[in-house]
Amino acid sequence: MGKSETKETKKSINSGFTSSLFLTLALYIFWIVLSGKMEAKYLIIGFLSAVIITLLTRPLLLVSIGSSKGILRSVYDLPWLRLMAYFPWLMWQIVLANLQVAAVIINPKMPIQPQLITFRKKLPGPVAYLTLANSITLTPGTITVDLEGDKYLVHALIGDAAAQSLAPEVGEGEMPYRVSWVFSGWEKEH
Amino acid sequence: MADFIAAVLMSAGLFFLLVGAIGLVRLPDFYTRLHAASLGDTLGLTLFLVGLMVHEGVTLTSFKMLIIELFMLLASPTATHVLIRAAYQVGLKPWTREEG
Questions:
Q1: Which of the listed residues A18, A126, A127, B40 has the most CB atoms within 10 Å of its CB?
Q2: Inter-axis angle of helices B30-39 and B60-90, nearest 10
Q3: Can you tell me whether residue A142 is helix, strand or coil?
Q4: Cβ separation of A114 and B95 shorter than 8 Å?
Q5: How far apart are CA A140 and CA A121, in angstroms?
Q6: Sheet containing strand A151-156, strands side by side
Q7: pTM of the predicted model as reported, rounded to 2 decimal places
Q8: Which residues contact A23 (CB under 8 A, 6 or more apart)?
């Protein structure tokens, strides 16, 4: 028991270092893009700022993961590849939902059926819940009102269509399914 | 050619911003109006920024626009969620279509 715990702590520190490196790099690239100056003076100032910001914000960016309390993990420690695979699908859903909502708004009869939908979805860790909640809100026509534990409360503009795609009577909705795919295996790897 | 594509993309973006504004006026209550606002936030702004990026070409400026777009995609749903949650907790009743 004690042995595995030390291993876990070591690993979480390790992943913390990788994500600190990632944050420093991201901040440095951000600096270069915003400043647009390539002289050594500005590059050095930018690099030092990136390192200092990373060190200062390190304690703020550690979250404990859902089921295994006590183990800290950086918020940047995410399944990036799977998130990148999920993103194009999400953008396409946003385009479809935009067209749907625009059609409803322009329609003189305005056939809206606002409705509150609740559904449950178990996900590994707070970042996974956040991803699903923000994906729902980002898609026009559905907004996450509240999230308690694993229970989502969603306000939908076109009730039936949203209920069909988020929480159908049989099986589970496509968006919750895909988000759980993105984060599946993510917890076990560490 | 690039300018033409940029113009088409920006017009499409403007269309969604306009529809979002119309929806803001036409829809019946606070909750449904937030849905209309998210039209402009997502596809409206995205199409407009992509149009500007096409017009600009591969430069530092278009990379900055990409960063703006990514920040919008993170910040806009969070703000919308905070607004709707506050309204719900205060007890504002959502408008529903009367049956029959």
A1: B40
A2: 170
A3: strand
A4: yes
A5: 21
A6: A115-120, A151-156, A142-148
A7: 0.82
A8: A54, A57, A61, A76
ipTM for this model: 0.87
- What tokens does B42 get? 């997502």
A137 to chain B: which residues are within 8 Å by CB? Answer: 38, 77-78, 80-81
**Sign (positive or negative) of CA dihedral A90, A91, A94, A100:** negative
Cβ pair A163, A152 in contact under 8 A: no
Summarize the confidence of residues A12-40 as an average pLDDT: 82
Taking the CA of residue A3 and the nearest CA in chain B, the distance in Å comes to 40
Chain B contact for A43, CB < 8 A?
no
Interface residue of B14, B19, B32, B35 to substitute, partner A, most A CBs within 10 Å: B35
Percentages (nearest 5) of helix, strand, coil residues in chain A = 60, 15, 25
Q: Which residue has the tokens 């993170």?
A: B74
User: What is chain A's mean pLDDT, rounded?
Assistant: 82
* Chain A residues touching B23 at Cβ < 8 A: 101, 105
Contact A145 B88 (CB under 8 A): yes
Q: Which residues of A touch B42 (CB under 8 A)?
A: 94, 98, 138-140
Which of B15, B32, B53 best probes binding to A when mutated, by most A CB atoms within 10 angstroms?
Answer: B32
| Nearest CB partner across the interface for B38, out of A30, A140, A146 | A140
Predicted confidence (pLDDT) at residue A10 exceeds the cutoff of 60: no
Provide DSSP, B59-92.
SHHHHHHHHHHHHHHHHHHHHHHHHHHHHHHHTP
Q: Phi, psi at residue A116, to the nearest 5°?
A: -100, 130
Residue A158 token pair: 């076109």
